[in-house]
Write a structure and sequence with these properties.
Length: 201
């Protein structure tokens, strides 16, 4: 089963990259982003792509400009995630054959992202939008659009978001924090997958 969970590994170091990738894939999380404000993110992403691109979708978060998109393409990244809706970043991502998940919060941003070719919409910060706000937005979006709640979401509220119509989640500190032991990351990932499967299976 392919789960719509994007692991957000903000602060990941290149030394941690492969053990953490293993832990996530073994637990059943196969979409992984390293935000570009992490230490030496391109080194981490390049190593992860070389190691696991056939088993997971590896990419970057906090991608703000076309230069970063080009750099990611050169190292084989498959996914570009942004905190904002920048149509030029989305178009550049799609032109290079990668998946685009821009951050949106309003109907204007959501439709601008879709017109630019986004593969899915990252609703951020989700805890501020809330399930009621998302439900209102979802009513006007094309029904097939992939939607991810990011920020303040976790196993305790997966069911509420699913009931509101969300199709996936981006999970950061509930999954990984800098300095966390790989066994703890694995346990967090397994708990996340169990909770997701209970709601979406």
């Amino acid at each position: 089963m392919s789960r719509n969970i994007i692991a957000i590994l903000r602060g990941l170091t290149p030394e941690e990259a492969l053990p953490v990738t293993d832990a996530l894939i073994c637990a059943g999380i196969t979409r992984i982003e390293v935000p570009l404000n992490s230490p030496d993110p391109y080194a981490s992403i390049a190593a992860m792509v070389a190691y696991a691109a056939d088993r997971a979708m590896i990419g970057a978060g906090t991608v703000l400009d076309q230069g970063a998109v080009s750099n990611l393409h050169q190292i084989g990244a498959q996914m570009v995630v942004s905190p904002d809706c920048n149509p030029e970043v989305i178009k550049a991502t799609k032109a290079l054959g990668m998946h685009s998940f821009p951050g949106v919060f309003t109907p204007t941003e959501a439709f601008a992202a879709l017109r630019a070719g986004a593969d899915g919409l990252k609703f951020f910060p989700a805890f501020k939008l809330g399930t009621d706000g998302f439900k209102a937005l979802k009513a006007v979006l094309p029904p097939e659009v992939a939607t991810y709640a990011v920020g303040g979401v976790g196993p305790e509220n997966f069911a509420q978001w699913q009931a509101a119509g969300i199709t996936g989640f981006g999970i950061g500190s509930n999954l990984y924090k800098p300095g966390m032991h790989v066994d703890e990351i694995a346990a967090n990932a397994e708990a996340m997958v169990r909770a997701y499967d209970e709601v979406f299976a």
